[in-house]
Amino acid sequence: MEKSDFLKESFETAQFQLGGHGKRDAAILKEAFGQVEDAMPSDHYGNGEVIEDFQLKIAKLLGKEAAVFFPSGTMAQQIALRIWCDEKKLKKVAYHPLSHLEIHEEDGLKELHHIDSVLLADKGRVIEIEDITALNEEVACILLELPQREIGGQLPNYETLVEISNWCREKGVKLHLDGARLFEVLPYYEKSAAEVAGLFDSVYISLYKGIGGIAGAVLAGSPGFAEQSKVWKRRHGGDLISLYPYIVSADYYLDKRLDKMEQYFREAKELAASFNACEEVSTLPLVPVSNMFHVYFQQPKEQIARVLAEVQKQSGVGFTSYLKEETEGNCYFEVSMGDLYTAIPKEKIAYAFQVLAQKIPS
Amino acid sequence: MEKSDFLKESFETAQFQLGGHGKRDAAILKEAFGQVEDAMPSDHYGNGEVIEDFQLKIAKLLGKEAAVFFPSGTMAQQIALRIWCDEKKLKKVAYHPLSHLEIHEEDGLKELHHIDSVLLADKGRVIEIEDITALNEEVACILLELPQREIGGQLPNYETLVEISNWCREKGVKLHLDGARLFEVLPYYEKSAAEVAGLFDSVYISLYKGIGGIAGAVLAGSPGFAEQSKVWKRRHGGDLISLYPYIVSADYYLDKRLDKMEQYFREAKELAASFNACEEVSTLPLVPVSNMFHVYFQQPKEQIARVLAEVQKQSGVGFTSYLKEETEGNCYFEVSMGDLYTAIPKEKIAYAFQVLAQKIPS
Fold it and tell me: How many CB atoms lie under 10 A from the CB of residue A44?
């Protein structure tokens, strides 16, 4: 068995897990469909009550006039950027160097849409207004990801968002929100989804991060934007005859978890503090601004994997199933708070951190 | 209420319907998941038992080395053609003028992949070997749709398929099968899926036509082709974190219906004969070669809509929910045989055709 499998196994067999909503298994779907009438008609290529009602609900939540359900955020965001590029007749957009589009999509934006990217800011920090005003080439659209997932879920100040939004409107540059975790940052900003979304011309949200649905995304904006996005959705092969398995689940878990984002945020700060109290361990950001953060160790991955596996076995509390090496000799994992944390007895968590503190090499 | 709604309502409220498997409602999903363990793990971005096992099953069924599950055929086929075009460094493919790619995909192939299409044969007939040998420009790939859906589901002879396949191999042109309804044509050809698929370099099948799943498609070919298709699937935004709602349903209904294709074919011939026995009504093709056919009337759509609505109300047998005008003064609808036909009492069907014969204007 490889070391990483060893770590994964000790995580999965632990009685408790610190992060997430639990295993992604068929029970997620079955629970969501438990209350659904057999006779509920499927959506049909983007039409029908089940999809239209949900789109309206999300549009309202985001304070936008229209919203369109997509199978994935990858599809939704490429399409948003394509629409803005076509409108400006300029195939160039700007975003963070660790944007999902830049590192997780096999260059779909470039290969399918022939859109070039200008990378804003350094990898290790969020985009600030200075990065925007220093732009020395014209772009059709700027994409901001809130929070910036790959650096532990960091956020610019809300005032910075307003400044960026104002700058974009003044310069005629469209501003798109990668809001994969938008609901998760609202407690920190102390703003409504509509207030944040109002700063952007188009907004993407994900339905399986903090919400914990099965898959799926929504793209929101003006009615004209939404209509264009449907044409591109068909071109991408995303206009399925039936998307209701994702929509019904998203709707169910949205209702269940939207009001829990405050709790996840509070618990993220509490849990991060526990990690930071451990010498040789630190979180990024030090104080979380959403439900997520990264946990860093200044020792090699192989060594920490062994330690964490032991801690997980001995304490019965799962910290992580994997470790990633950022630079040689260090490693990290990601935590996203969900429904599981609150169900763990406090003394169990305290014990787990006690074991971690003992076993971690200094 | 519009006339078309009037027709639709009389169809949906009729006690029986001639075509299809029944309403596309949530019961389809719930039945498929009825026997699934809560603990069945989700697939995860294309990995995991649920997706890998199903892909292997379809690969084996099609006699191909590898298969990849896609959310849609639109996505799968564009990608297949893109791979073959890239391999040949020639962005040109040939297919029927009424191919799904040409008329139902908002030109995704052209807009996303910049692939040009050469249209083979006249709209009203299937592609023959002469259309291929007469090609006066080089193409990377030829796509054949079996059966040709938009002309009632017609088929070339099997010998023609062999000739086309041989020609393509000789000339170094890839041959792709749009097998959205591949299983549905096997009883006519008296061949296995693998025998037909063996004539092609890549094969797409749909999982919600005769099979009656919720959505989804599979693309099959060589291992190298499959690997490339996964990269493009990610670029298209089709590499979802979870595709299992479609996969589990597809697997369930495949097992349930694969052996019924012979029955659907036999019943299609029987039902088409009933239509053709009616003066002023004819089917295309006259004798079906799959589970589908089109029903033509040589009178205006509005007139026939009224007649059919009356027939459906009086007889309690639903023929169609819609009519399409092909040329002015005629109209048609499509029938695809499924599970419903066999459950209708024979005398009910006989009565419905008797009423139709009485009411149809000559």
Answer: 15
ipTM for the predicted complex comes to: 0.97
Beta carbons of A234 and B40 less than 8 Å apart: no
Interchain contact A350–B (C-beta under 8 A): no
**Which H/E stretch holds residue B252?**
helix B244-257
A238 touches chain B (CB under 8 A): yes
pLDDT, tens digit, 9 for 90 and up, residues B70-96? 999 999 999 999 999 999 999 999 999
Q: Between A24, A78, A236, which is nearest B75 by CB? A: A236
**Please, what is the Cα angle at B25 between B23 and B30, to 5 degrees?**
125
- What pLDDT does A4 receive? 55
Among the partner-chain residues A38, A72, A237, the one whose CB lies closest to the CB of B240 is A72
Q: How far apart are CA B311 and CA B296, in angstroms?
A: 16
Q: Tell me yes or no: is domain A3-22+260-359 CATH 3.90.1150.10.
A: yes
Instruction: Name the strand (E) or helix (H) holding A296.
Output: strand A292-297
CB contact under 8 A, B24 and A41: yes
pLDDT attached to residue B361:
82
CB contact under 8 A, B238 and A113: no
Domain ranges, ordered by start, for chain A: 3-22+260-359, 43-241
Q: Which of B236, B249, B251 to mutate to test the interface with A (most CBs of A within 10 A)?
A: B236
pLDDT score of B1: 45
pLDDT for res B2: 52
Residues of A in contact with B24 (CB under 8 A): 41-42, 44, 241-242
Give CA–CA dist A31/A76, Å, rounded: 27
Flag residues of chain A having pLDDT under 50: 1, 3
Kindly tell me if the per-residue pLDDT of B124 is higher than 60.
Answer: yes
pTM of this prediction exceeds 0.80: yes
Q: In chain A, which residues have their Cβ closer than 8 Å to the Cβ of B37?
A: 26
Judged against a pLDDT cut of 60, whether residue B222 lies above it is answered with yes
Cα A98 off chain centre by: 13
Q: Which fold has domain B43-241?
A: Aspartate Aminotransferase; domain 2 (3.40.640)
